[in-house]
Input
Amino acid sequence: AVGALRRALSSPLAPALVGARGVCTGAGGRGVGARAWRVYLSGEIHSSWREELAAGVARAQLPIELSAPNTSHEDSDDCAAIILGMEEKRPNWDRIGASMNAVRTRTLIDQADVVVVRFGEKYRQWNAAFDAGYAFAKGKPIITLHPPSLGHSLKEVNAAANVVCEDVSQVVQTLAYVIDGALPPPKDGDAFIPIVERLGKGNPNP
Output
């Protein structure tokens, strides 16, 4: 199996792993010497969503360092057996592998400013729900990412999340707003009505 480090360095994610810095175009601004945000990308490993998100971060020139679990399914299954030796029974094989992978996962979640958790339509990545729970217990802001069809089955996870997104572009836009105060055109287009016009002032006597 190809080593995880070699894959990480050759991945399209690699430029974003060291952070992408640029000129602020948002209303909030970040100024000289602004901090880099650490964003951990948890969840399904069978699609290119991480690469798409990294590309969006780079285009938006956001000061973000992305991290992720080992995204090789085979390596994450066999890592401990390769290093420590094979086990006779599957539960033991899985246990030592999960424990070894948890060293990376817990460390990077602990270091993260924001945790993005992706649930796919085909590959649900049940361990992603555990990552979300761990991040919540650690007080980390959580952004979930999944198609609308999974909303009901993930309602408890989404209730603990700060933001629930349907596609990668919404995650990038959320990060751009949080970091820079930059907002995209409204999702509802010309139908969008500001809250003051739609529902009135929250405090009529400021």
Notes: The chain has one domain: 4-199.
